[in-house]
Amino acid sequence: MIAELGQYALALAFVLALLQVILPAWGARRGDPVLMGTGSYIAVGFLGFITFAFGALVQLYVTSDFTVINVVENSHSRMPLIYKITSTWGNHEGSMLLWVFVLAAFGACVAVFGGNLPDRLKAHVLAVQGLIGAAFLSFILFTSNPFLRMMPPPAEGRDLNPILQDPGLAIHPPLLYLGYVGLSISFAFAIAALIEGRIDAAWARWVRPWTLAAWVFLTLGIAMGSYWAYYELGWGGWWFWDPVENASLMPWLAATALLHSAVVMEKRDALKVWTILLAILAFSLSLMGTFLVRSGVLTSVHAFATDPARGVFILAILTFFIAGGFTLFALRASELKQGGLFAPVSREGALVMNNLFLTAATAAVLVGTLYPLALEAVTGAKITVGPPYFNLTFGGLMLPLVFAIPFGPLLAWKRGDLLGVAQRLMLAAGLAVVAAVVTAAASDGGPVAAPLGVGLAVFIMLGALTDIMERAGLGRVRAKVALARLAGVPRSAYGTAVAHFGVGVCLLGIVCGTAWSYEKIVSVKPGDHITIGTRDLTFERLENRTGPNFSARTAVFSIRNNGAPEGVIEASRRMFSARQMATTEAGIRTFGFSQLYVSMGEEMPDGGMSVRATYKPNVTLIWLGAVVMALGGALSLADRRLRVGAPKPARRRATPVPAE
Questions:
Q1: Facing residues of 520 across strands?
Q2: First to last CA, the chain
């Protein structure tokens, strides 16, 4: 009965989605405030029915209802409860339902918290959201229904893909979808603005919070996915240029450019074409990522489906929204006014340069991801575009961009003084040079350019602090005055500084973890030692262990650092009987910001075992930096001027002057 109720809820949600398209749009066309106002109520009702359907699917998984095909194919009665819940979105059908659930949640948020939006703009935004929801609900209902029954039901399910039975799955997909789907709001605002022909600084103020919220979630989702691959797959790396990894990186790059472009549009009423174009592009890349994961055109550990029929359906949706969005943009682009003028050396100029490099980096990743697929489709030849291409092209484009990060916030609007900004950054630059020299003197081997990377990371971090110090006048005014100024700095300025500081932290982790990692691949027997850096690993024993739905062979190592014991580290290989699939669980011990990483290989006939042991200095700074970037975005979002629906301050009434 629960499955049928979930099915009915999806059908009713589809009807509401169609009404959400028709009624507010028709009301906007007629200028009818009542019809325009219905969009908000429908959006909330749409969320209610989707929530019910999603909750029904969760209930089916929790109770192990094996009369439902989706539960049979992706669950097992002996799975821990947390994995039964995460199995809901650990498959194609459930993940698409989560996709629509997040879309409905964002639409309802616009309906509830968008009271400061003009009625016509709000009506068109909700109509676009309804159209997206209707398209994806039709995809679910006709090709990916999660509530289909199986009769007679099997006694047991086939289990969830073992590599997805991890706490990271409880966090990574929802965060990623909040970012992916959150960009639909930016897209809806862009389409609504193009329909109305009204694009101004107020529009930029309205769209920024939604884009910023999506960017924060997408940043956290990518970071969580990177860390999951790092420890769960046993590869030991943090980024592999997997096509599905690229599918999440490209919308993030476009959204980052969109945020910076919206700032210029809000402050200077400029870059209107850039901002609209990036809003369409960011969501288009999100749709492309959805297509890549579910179309069957690529094989990846992240891919959900390999059904070409589903791929054709999603391709049709993707083509409709992308082609429609860019066609409308082409028709209305000539009507967009230029806006404020500015000198090349200015904050606007710096943000334009930022957009150029981010867009070029996005294009480089897009070409590297799609070119092998296009070549195979046309000629049948299979090629691989690997890390060397991405590292050289993407790294080469990002290097000048990250170097310019400290300069941008210090430049004045309209016309800046580059020499003056350089003088204010002299202390940060000097300390960065010292850090590079000290690193070069202290390091034992590694790439020659690695100390320069450390210096650049330090320069970015200190440059972010310089912006706040300059705003407070530290060193130029009395301490009491400086503290008062610090208290008056807008939260958005603090958020920018924190996010830029996070870029430096992330870069420092990338440089250190890549340049100075130590790795040994050896065959050991119980009692053998592995020396890696200053630490000594002793292979103590192999143990057989049993989990809820798996059996495991676990290798136990004791750790000593310069002779002092530092505990144990355990690595294992798990065999999941239902799917007859093995996974590798790496053993990880964290020391400060560094990690010792041990991964098991195959067992030898003589009782030995191959082991890969790696010491990764400061590697956790990669993910810590991403978290700091997201915190910066959240801090900016907390700025009252950016909060959606923040009431406008009442104007002070003028004191009446008595008549003479």
A1: 613
A2: 81
Residue-wise pLDDT for 20-77, tens only, equals 999 999 999 999 999 999 999 999 999 999 999 999 999 999 999 999 999 999 999 9
Q: Which amino acid is at 8?
A: Y
Distance CA 278, CA 253 (A): 10
| Burial letters 92-118, b for 16+ CB under 10 A, else e | bbbbbbbbbbbbbbbbbbbbeebeebb
Token digits of residue 602: 């195959």
**Cα separation, 47 vs 107, whole angstroms:** 8
Alpha-carbon gap, residue 119 to 595, rounded angstroms: 54
Q: Is the CB of residue 123 less than 8 Å from the CB of residue 142?
A: no
Q: Is 158 helix (H, G, I), strand (E, B) or coil?
A: coil
The mean per-residue pLDDT over the stretch 442-471 comes to: 91
Decide if 52 contacts 6 (C-beta within 8 A). yes
DSSP bridge pairs for 183: none
Query: Which residue has 């209802």 as its token pair?
Result: 65
How many Cβ atoms from other residues are within 10 Å of residue 283's Cβ? 30
Residues paired with 537 in a beta bridge: 530, 559
pTM listed for this prediction = 0.91
- pLDDT tens for each residue of 290-323: 877 765 555 544 444 456 677 788 889 999 999 9
* Geometric angle at alpha carbon 268, from 262 and 270, rounded to 5°: 65
> Could you give the CA distance from residue 70 to residue 382 in angstroms, rounded to a whole number?
33
Strand order in the sheet with 551-561: 529-532, 535-546, 551-561, 564-576, 581-585
CA distance 166 to 301: 14
Rounded CA-CA distance 541/555 in Å is 6
Instruction: Return d(Cα 412, Cα 421) in angstroms, integer.
Output: 9
Tokens encoding 491: 């939260």
Take residue 408 and report the two structure tokens written for it: 């941008």
Which residue, chain included where needed, has tokens 């209902």?
141
- Sequence-separated (6 or more) residues with CB below 8 Å from residue 290: 99, 180, 314, 318
Who's near 105: CB < 8 A, 6+ residues apart?
47
